[in-house]
Amino acid sequence: MSDISALAQRLDDAARTATGVPQLEETISVEEAYAVQAQSMQLRYDRGERRIGLKMGMTSRAKMAQMGLEDLIWGRLTDAMLVEDGGKINFNGFVHPRVEPEIAFLLGAPLGGSVTPMAARAALAGVAPALEIIDSRYHNFKFSLTDVIADNSSSSAFVTGPWADPSIDLANLGFILNIDGVARQIGSSAAILGNPIRSLVAAARLAAAAGEPLQAGDVVMAGGATAAEALAPGQHVCLEVQKLGRVEFHIQPKENVCLEK
Ligand code: 0L1
Ligand code: MG
Fold it and tell me: Residue 157 and residue 251: Cα distance in Å, rounded?
């Protein structure tokens, strides 16, 4: 049995100081990896951060098959990870950030355990275009399944756009991810498990199984609709989702460094 708290501390230090670390040498089970994640998130809560929802990862069937996964992975979101729509992030606060175009769900009622897509939809207060900034704390974004789960499934920041009527059909909405005005990824919400509502159904099951059932007010990030794009200082990132609208953020430019004469 590995020392769960030592691994949690290592990954929390890496995230807090934006410093890459080697992959875990320790062999741990998926259950132990989630225990590491829970303990590393507890360190954040102890510093005053508040859990406000969760993110779903590996939500494309192709990615699941490629990784040999039988289930989705998930991570926890805190209030400190939330970036205002149109706001600025500091590149130096990340190891090597990437952005994924997503849909976010806002719960209007609790949603726990085994639920139908219809029940999941009925619990919603809103849906929004959203951007997830993922940032693996491992060097070169290289990790095993248990590595990434322990690392809060690479979750680091997220931006949600305007909340729209949750009765909108989400099955096949067009996505365009622009960086500095250039379309870098084009896709469809259908890439998220065929329909992103399935991701919410899975989130309800996994969160309840972990003893943290979804509550009214929670945000759930449904998962990437396209491949992730690497980010750089000074960029403007904007996602447009058919029927849902747009969401955006800026990355602060590199700071000028005064050289000695
Ligand atoms: O949000 C995601 O689907 C990514 C999950 C973690 C894997 C990665 O960092 O690419
Ligand atoms: Mg994601």
Answer: 12
The answer as to whether 121 is a domain residue is: yes
pTM to 2 decimals? 0.94
Average pLDDT over residues 103-125: 97
What CATH number is attached to the domain comprising 192? 3.90.850.10
d(CA 261, CA 90): 28
Q: Within a domain: residue 191?
A: yes
Domain assignment of residue 237, yes or no: yes
- Note whether residue 261 is domain-resident: no
Q: Count of domains in the chain?
A: 1
* Atom from ligand 1 closest to the CA of residue 155: 1
Question: What is the domain extent for residue 68?
Answer: 4-256
**pLDDT tens digits along 148-167:** 999 999 999 999 999 999 99
Confidence band, pLDDT 50/70/90 cuts, at residue 257: low
Ligand closest to CA 223: 2
Ligand 1 centroid–CA 224 distance in Å is: 8
Beta strands in the chain, from DSSP E residues, in sequence order = 51-57, 73-78, 82-83, 88-89, 98-107, 124-134, 155-160, 174-179, 182-188, 219-221, 229-230, 236-241, 245-251
Does residue 208 carry a pLDDT above 50? yes
Whether pLDDT at 234 is above 70: yes
- 224 CA: nearest ligand 1 atom: 3
Nearest alpha carbon, ligand 1 atom 4: 57
